[in-house]
Amino acid sequence: MRAGNRLGDTEITDPHTMRALAHPVRLSLLDQLRQHGPATATELSPKVGATPSVTSWHLRHLAGFGLVRDSEPGPDRRARRWEAVARGFRFEFPADPADADGASAARVLSEHLFARAAELLPRWLEEVEPGLDPAWRRLAGVSNTRVVVSAPELERIADAIEQVLAPYVLRGPDERPAGSRGVRLLRYVLPEAEDEASSPAS
Question: What residues contact residue 1 under an 8 Å CB cut-off, 6+ apart?
């Protein structure tokens, strides 16, 4: 785990792994396992929109890339249960400009993640937000902040955000106060084109 990965995410650097993960069913499976814990292919099947056999195939594919693994057996010890290897994953565009394969794989995975996030927002507005009590509704929402920084400064900002989040991400269920609930924090980091970066921050 490199310095700065305070959340213990799986770090994906291999282009083949990025491409393997860039699939709607596989991303849904990881989301389900990270959010709800270990499950069988049959339990996951209706949640990801695939048959149990197809779901099982995708789980084995993810396991081959080290993203999921076998979990402790449930009440039915004959049923294979799966769990996510980590709470999250992260990947980066390669630092080497000549690594066209790595850049292409990272771009494909980014496109899938952006598409999933775009679907999440209107679904939350329609299905979740109307039922929130005022205390939670007041804290929900979107922020859009523009800053003018150097690349090292941006890296320090990202690390500082993770430093704040880490105690809440890493604590166990028995450490959470009463009334806690899951909250999805979406963070987009979108450097502008060079000619835009020099203009005054608005």
Answer: 8, 11
Query: What is the H or E stretch that residue 21 is in?
Result: helix 15-21
Domain boundaries, the chain: 10-197
Nearest by Cα to 31 from 66, 94, 39: 39
Reported as a single tens digit per residue, the pLDDT across 169-179 is 999 999 999 99
Calculate mean pLDDT across residues 133-149: 93
CA distance 103 to 88: 21
> Percentages helix, strand, coil for the chain, rounded to the nearest 5?
50, 5, 40
pLDDT band at 201 (very low <50, low <70, confident <90, very high): low
Please state which CATH class domain 10-197 belongs to: mainly alpha
